[in-house]
């Protein structure tokens, strides 16, 4: 914010809280499956989504929301001491706390902890280069496929988000997956979903995982009904038909939509149920055991076993 004639960082070193989550909750299904991730955010956001499901922190201008104070090194140590594979910058968009996130990423990398950005991808190209140079993985929201939706319902624009996705694919090694929250009557038509999936195929290729997740009434859209599971299944069918290899459904119980299938022989390889891995069949070097196809992603030689827990932690009790 502006103080006097200077821009100052008012949220650096302060967080709205820390939690250990399954990596599948970010959601990332191809980034060290079954591992745990230490997650935190700050306050405020650079978008103004009328459907924001974290609006209590993303819309907050009240620094009292920021209860936990933690230096970048303290966060990295907390992740290490709790056996987390990665640290995620999430809940609100890390673009607005980029300096804090980037310093934390440096501290994490010094301890062999990976870093994850959960972001709307709405960022200027110069800042984008600096920010993503510190990230190992990202989940990027592609909230819709029309400028009208972005303008009216998020206060931002579609094209810069598409630019970020193309940048990540063609100019970085960041592993990234895409999430689209389907909102009844707003972005869930066959035509819009088809156009979006065709764009992903043409610009990013078939191996970028796509997650369709269910809206529930929130913030300034309390009158729109919850997304039915049938909408997510329909969207997944459209995406698979367009040629995408890894398409998932989120916020609903749908084992097929939670499962990673081999894109060549179609064998189920990672069977999940609500962040829990029921079956894991990838070879130690990330291939299908049946046809030897390489599965896109970042994998350890064995799966993690964190399960579907969510563990809040008091970061101020962490000691170096
Ligand atoms: S980008 Fe995410 S956190 Fe920010 S307002 Fe939109 S939904 Fe909320």
UniProtKB/TrEMBL annotation:
Keyword check for Iron, yes or no. yes
**Keyword match Iron:** yes
Q: Record's superkingdom?
A: Bacteria
Q: What is this protein called?
A: AmmeMemoRadiSam system radical SAM enzyme
Q: Which cofactor does it need?
A: [4Fe-4S] cluster
Q: Which residues bind [4Fe-4S] cluster?
A: 45, 49, 52
Recorded GO MF terms = 4 iron, 4 sulfur cluster binding; catalytic activity; metal ion binding
Q: Some GO term, biological process aspect, for this entry: which one?
A: glucose metabolic process
Q: What is the lineage of its organism?
A: Bacteria, Pseudomonadati, Pseudomonadota, Betaproteobacteria, Nitrosomonadales
Entry note: cofactor = Binds 1 [4Fe-4S] cluster. The cluster is coordinated with 3 cysteines and an exchangeable S-adenosyl-L-methionine.
Q: Which InterPro entries match?
A: Aldolase_TIM, AmmeMemoSam_rS, Organic_radical-activating, Pyrv-formate_lyase-activ_prd, rSAM, rSAM_sf
Q: Which UniProt keywords apply?
A: 4Fe-4S, Carbohydrate metabolism, Glucose metabolism, Iron, Iron-sulfur, Metal-binding, S-adenosyl-L-methionine
């Amino acid at each position: 914010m502006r103080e006097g004639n200077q821009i100052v960082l008012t949220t650096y070193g302060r967080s709205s809280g820390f939690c250990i989550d399954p990596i599948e909750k970010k959601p990332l299904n191809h980034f060290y499956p079954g591992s745990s991730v230490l997650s935190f955010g700050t306050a405020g956001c650079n978008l103004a989504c009328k459907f924001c499901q974290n609006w209590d922190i993303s819309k907050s201008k009240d620094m009292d929301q920021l209860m936990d104070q933690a230096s970048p090194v303290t966060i990295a140590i907390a992740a290490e001491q709790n056996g987390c594979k990665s640290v995620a910058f999430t809940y609100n968009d890390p673009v607005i706390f980029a300096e804090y996130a980037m310093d934390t990423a440096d501290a994490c990398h010094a301890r062999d902890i990976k870093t994850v950005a959960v972001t709307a991808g709405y960022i200027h190209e110069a800042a984008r280069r600096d920010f993503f140079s510190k990230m190992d993985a990202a989940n990027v929201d592609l909230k819709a496929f029309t400028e009208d939706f972005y303008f009216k319902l998020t206060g931002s624009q579609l094209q810069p988000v598409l630019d970020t996705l193309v940048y990540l694919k063609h100019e970085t090694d960041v592993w990234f997956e895409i999430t689209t929250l389907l909102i009844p009557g707003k972005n869930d038509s066959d035509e819009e979903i088809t156009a979006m999936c065709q764009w992903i195929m043409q610009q990013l290729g078939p191996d970028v995982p796509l997650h369709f997740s269910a809206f529930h009434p929130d913030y300034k859209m309390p009158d729109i009904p919850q997304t039915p599971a049938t909408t997510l299944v329909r969207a997944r069918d459209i995406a698979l038909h367009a040629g995408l290899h890894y398409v998932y459904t989120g916020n609903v119980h749908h084992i097929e939509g939670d499962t990673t299938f081999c894109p060549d022989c179609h064998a189920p390889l990672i069977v999940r149920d609500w962040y829990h891995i029921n079956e894991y069949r990838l070879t130690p070097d990330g291939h299908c055991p049946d046809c030897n196809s390489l599965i896109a992603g970042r994998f350890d030689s064995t799966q993690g076993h964190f399960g579907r827990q969510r563990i809040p932690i008091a970061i101020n009790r962490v000691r170096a």
